[in-house]
Request: fold
Amino acid sequence: MRIVGILLALAGWLIPLVGLTVTQSLTARFVLVVLGIGISLIGILGVLNKAHLKNAIWKG
Amino acid sequence: MKKRFGRMKICSCAVVALLLLCGLGAWAQGQAGSAAATTTPATTTPAMDVPLDVKAANPPSTEDLAKGDPEGTKTGTVNDIVVSDTKKGLTLADVVNQVGQNRIGINFTWTLICGFLVMFMQAGFAIVETGLCRAKNANHTMMMNFMVYGFGLFAFWVCGFAIQMGGGAPYSTLGGASSLNSEHVISFLGKNWGVFGTHGFFLSGATYDVGVMVMFLFQMVFMDTALTIVTGSCAERWKYIAFAVSSVFMGALTYPLFANWAWGGGWLSQLGSNFGLGHGYADFAGSGVVHSVGGVTALALAMIIGPRIGKYNRNGTPNAMPGHDIVIVLTGCFILAFGWFGFNPGSTLGASGNGALRISSIAVNTMLAGCTGSFGAILYMWMRYGKPDASMSGNGLLAGLVAITAPSGFVNSVSSAIIGLIAGVLVCVSVELVERKLKIDDPVGAISVHGANGIWGVISVGLFADGASNYGGSWNGVNGSVRGLFYGDPGQLVAQLIGVGTLIGFVFSLSYVAGWIMDVIIGQRVSAADELEGLDIPEMGALCYPEFVLKPEMVARAVEATSQIKSGFRIAQETA
Reply:
């Protein structure tokens, strides 16, 4: 799950970068970058952190 | 008919008169022009090497100067201009060269003194973090903050500076520093992307240059600020050796890489010239480059290391673990606020030319945002919990300062106050989110103060930049002043958001993977027994307060901690 989280975080970064060349539209670029940030956050806080919390010290 | 002819005559006369008048006017103008042309002296190149007659400057004689100058009117005259050829005497060339060197001298002095102020912030961070930790870990926390300066500096000198600034020249305020002129560029999606610099390793070769040295010192203390953020979020359970390796890695690679993309001529700074997004990613003094890089790295490592024993109960509810000295916490906040006057106004890299007089506006913006940041935090805590919390007031001040760091050079005072106020509330909300929802233990609130508010600062440039700044007529190679969404340039906001995406997506991932590898190889976390005892003796070999009797932890927390240990956490690892 940790690797999935990291891959999502990286994918979220790459989406707006690719979007820069795919479209010239400012609105489309805005939407893509917000989407990318959202995916990165899901990867970090949703997937990766959940993987850490699974074996958290206080759950023992 | 007669009448008609009479009118025609009058009209004809009028037209003739008008034509005559116009002709006369044109002739007069031509005469005046030619007269002016004949009276204007021919342009001549001033003789630069002809000795000047300096008597008119009325310089004081040697006898006058020997009497002393209590009024300060005889010191600093034409006598003090450096003459290149004493036989020839003072020439215009000497004067012009002196003017140029004075400007660069002012800029060097300004930038170096601001760098010294930023260096002093290390002391502020050290006592804020130590004060927010428990007394049994004070020596360990202080020593992390003390040595992060050395570890970071060394790594930055070896390669970090070259990666960051090796291709960013020219820096006109510092006389060019032109040897920093090699940026490694890759071609991707049909565009060239600057990735890292390649000149300046060990500050050797052509980078043995006075301008480069100023740049190195100023950038180095910024880098160290980012590194010391991480020690706060990992305090009270981080192995000292892991901290040392992690700091060297961050000073050598993580920080310089993002700083190159933003400040060293890298691809983020080119978003304006390559893709028409405003002026590219604009981060005046480093909300993103310094604070967010530190904040997201702190998040990555805090996740890997995990919470302190006793921080969370079995049902996941958090316990408060108050720091041991609120006096040094708030004193540290004041030191940091003082140092921030080096951080933000110093980022003009000069006080003379290129619009650098805006340092006054930047300093006021910095003050204001810190002020409203502490207002925001204290009001939030007062209304929500009924008391004005001291540590959160301090964090509110820092949050306001962090948030204004990126926009300080681009916004007006009203915007600064708004940015700071939002930052003050945001830090409280973020601390609650991190602690209660995400269950990430951050003893000093570094993730919220620097990570969340650093990102807010980056975004706020894209909203509030008012287009009134002018640093040499362009920013990141795009002519004109930086404007945000509210001042007519939505492209700038998109550029800022791409910077945010890079911080969250790339910098976090790099830090996490590096931290994970280190965890596997050397282990990031101390043993449970050491953690309960306090890290001063097991890790540092000496107590910070040997003459103090350290009060036992609250009974409930001790019981909880013991049960966690009994349940097998870490003990199993140690046994294995």
Helices of chain A lie at 2-22, 26-54. Chain A touches chain B through 33 residues (CB under 8 Å). The longest helix of chain A spans residues 26-54. The mean pLDDT of chain A is 93.
